[in-house]
Specification:
Blueprint (H helix, E strand, L loop, with lengths): L8 H15 L5 H6 L4 E5 L2 H5 L7 E2 H4 L5 E5 L6 E5 L2 E5 L5 E3 L5 E2 L2 E4 L5 E3 L7 H11 L6 E16 L11 H5 L4 E16 L10 E8 L5 E19 L1 E5 L4 H5 L7 H8 L1
Parallel strand pairs: 1-14
Antiparallel strand pairs: 1-8, 2-7, 3-4, 3-8, 4-5, 5-6, 9-13, 10-11, 10-13, 11-12, 12-13
Length: 269
Amino acid sequence: MKPKAKIPLVIACVICLVVGILAGYLPGYYSDIQNQGDILTQVSTIDAILGGLYDGVITYGDLKDYGDFGIGTFEGLDGEMVALDGNFYQIKADGVAYPVTDTMTTPFACVIFFDADREIPVGEGMNYTQFQDYLSDAIQEKNIFHAVKIEGTFGYVKTRSVPGQEKPYPPLVEVTANQPTFEFNDIEGTIVGFYCPDYVEGLNVPGYHLHFITADRKAGGHVLEFIIKDAKLSVDYTSELHIILPDTEEFNRLDLTKSRKEELEEAEK
C-alpha cells in the first residue's frame, strides 16, 4: 500500500497559526485584546507642544477609542481638556467647561480606560507639593506610568487655561506667560492626570501633570495648586505606552534633540 503523503512541517505550522488566531487560542492573543484598556495612549510629544506645534493630530471621536479618562488640549492650544467617565470637556480661557464634539481635534493628549488598581488614603490639608512627596514614598512602581484620580472636596484649587492661538504659533512659554488663572474655595470636584517617570523627558511631562473639573462639570483647568479637604485617591498603573505621532512636515523638521526642561518647568508652573 502506498503511504499517505505527510504535510510539510512549515505548512502544518501555518495551518495551526491560522486556526489559533481564528479561535483566539494563541498564548497571549486573547489576553492582549482583553488588556488593551490598560494601555496609556499619548498623542504627539510634550516637546512638540513646547515648540509650537498646535495643529490637531487626531479627532476626539477617534481618541475616545483609546480611553475614557485623561488630559490634553485642542487645535490651536485652545484650552485644557479633561476626560472623566467617558465624558470629554474643553476648559477655555474663561475657565468654563464646554462639552467636546467628536469632530474637534487635539495636538496633545493622554488617555486610558481608567480601572483603579489601588486606593491610597490622603489627608486633610495636603497640598500639591506634599501630595507629590507623599506618593513618592507610597508608590513603588516609579518606572512605569500611572493614572491618578483625586475625587472629593478641596479647600482650595488654583488652575489655569490658555487662549487659542493663531499661526504662526508662538512657543508655549510665551503663551503661558500671560495665562488666565482661576481660584476655587471649598469646592467639590475631581483632579485627573498622570504620573510619568523622569526618563520620559522630552516625550511627556516628568512627574505629575494634573487637570481639575468641578463636580457640576462647569469649570476647571490645568492644576497649579490644591489643598485637599476630604477626598479619595485612586491610582491605575500601566507599563504599556502607545504613541500617535504627527505625520507632518512641521513635526519632521522640528529639532527634538535639545533639552527643553527649563521651558517645560516655566510653562507648567
